[in-house]
């Protein structure tokens, strides 16, 4: 498989600007995971998943435990699993196609398996999304960013700026804030790659908290003489705010090294539960001695065979 798009053209004309459908963006597409593998992973590892069922024309979240696909029938449902790349090697290797983007901006890979009539209800994501169509066909609708907000699939958007059926290897880019939904006409797999986003206020709060935890000292504010002269002593002048902003900017420059370290640590974290490493097997001294003796005997046997 190869990603056959112009990165420069995509970033210049579409990134965080407009949705775009790129037909056959991935050549020789091979599904990184099969429906059977997905079902087994969810059941065996109790992965967090969402069962989306269509009832009375609306997509609704199902809250019952997932007990397998057989009990759900052949129509009107979809299974959505996030962070599948942490649990499946081929899904992790699939992400390597998108190393045209920096590693730190990419969130985990989400996979959805839908049967006929199933899909994802109307939603608006707070991040940019790449949708890659796998097996089967799915119809995706994307509305304008100015449309009414979508909350939990309860409201629809009337008009769409994209209304296309995707087949294997097609890629749909949806900038954050654009409402969208999907519907499958047959058993289908879709892969969604979400890109990192955050709020400046939250980032500043988290960074300053890390400074406090490490006992960093700030710059003491002390107004200069020219800031103290004014006719009205109750007035806060624009230059007062400028001086305050300059002090904060100076502090940021002083702590740039710490800011870099903090940001690297933040971007190395994941909001998803990762697979647990198998517990180390504990051996008693006698077991260790036995294993060493067996290894010695095996090496003697290999030596005699060589002779």
Short description:
This protein has helices at 7-13, 35-45, 89-94, 200-213, 225-228, 238-254, 256-267, 285-306; strands spanning 2-3, 20-22, 26-27, 49-55, 58-62, 77-81, 106-114, 129-133, 138-142, 162-166, 171-174, 180-184, 188-195. The chain is of the alpha+beta class and 307 residues long.
Keywords:
3-stranded antiparallel beta sheet; 8 helices; alpha+beta; 8-stranded antiparallel beta sheet; 307 residues; 21% strand; 13 strands
What does this structure look like?
The structure is a single chain. This protein is an alpha+beta fold and 307 residues long. The chain has eight helices and 13 strands. An eight-stranded antiparallel β-sheet has the order 2-11-8-13-7-6-4-5, covered by helices on one side. The chain has a three-stranded antiparallel β-sheet with strand order 10-9-12, with no helix packed on it. A two-stranded antiparallel ribbon has the order 1-3. Strand 4 and strand 5 (58-62) form a beta hairpin. The protein is extended and about 80 Å long.
How does the helix and strand content classify structurally? alpha+beta
Question: For the report, how would you describe the main beta sheet?
Answer: 8 strands, antiparallel
Number of helices: 8
Question: In angstroms, what is the radius of gyration?
Answer: 27 Å
Please give the share of residues in helix.
Answer: 25-40%
- Work out the number of β strands: 13
Largest sheet strand order: 2-11-8-13-7-6-4-5
Distance between the termini: 48 Å
| Topology order in helix (H) and strand (E) letters | EHEEHEEEHEEEEEEEHHHHH
Shape descriptor? extended
Overall mean confidence score, pLDDT: 82
pLDDT below 50 for ≥5 consecutive residues: which ranges?
300-307
β content, as a range? 15-25%
């Amino acid at each position: 498989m190869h990603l056959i798009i112009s990165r420069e053209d995509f970033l210049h004309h579409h990134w965080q600007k407009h949705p775009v459908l790129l037909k056959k963006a991935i050549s020789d597409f091979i599904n990184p995971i099969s429906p059977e593998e997905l079902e087994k992973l969810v059941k065996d590892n109790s992965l967090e998943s969402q069962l989306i069922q269509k009832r009375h024309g609306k997509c609704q979240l199902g809250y019952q435990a997932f007990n397998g696909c057989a009990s759900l029938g052949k129509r009107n449902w979809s299974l959505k699993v996030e962070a599948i790349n942490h649990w499946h090697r081929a899904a992790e290797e699939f992400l390597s196609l998108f190393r045209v983007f920096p590693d730190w901006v990419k969130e985990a890979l989400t996979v959805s398996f839908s049967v006929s009539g199933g899909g994802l209800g109307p939603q608006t994501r707070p991040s940019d999304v790449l949708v890659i169509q796998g097996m089967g066909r799915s119809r995706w609708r994307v509305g304008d960013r100015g449309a009414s907000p979508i909350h939990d699939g309860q409201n629809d958007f009337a008009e769409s700026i994209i209304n296309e059926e995707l087949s294997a290897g097609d890629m749909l880019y949806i900038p954050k804030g654009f409402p969208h939904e999907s519907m499958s006409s047959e058993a289908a797999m879709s892969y969604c790659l979400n890109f990192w986003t955050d709020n400046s206020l939250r980032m500043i709060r988290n960074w300053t908290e890390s400074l406090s935890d490490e006992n960093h000292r700030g710059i003491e504010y002390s107004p200069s003489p020219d800031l103290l002269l004014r006719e009205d002593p109750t007035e806060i002048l624009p230059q007062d705010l400028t001086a305050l902003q300059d002090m904060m900017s100076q502090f940021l420059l002083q702590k740039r090294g710490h800011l870099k370290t903090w940001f690297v640590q933040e971007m190395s974290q994941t909001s998803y539960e990762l697979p647990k490493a198998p517990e180390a097997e504990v051996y008693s001294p006698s077991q260790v001695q036995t294993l060493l003796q067996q290894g010695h005997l095996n090496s003697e046997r290999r030596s005699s065979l060589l002779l």
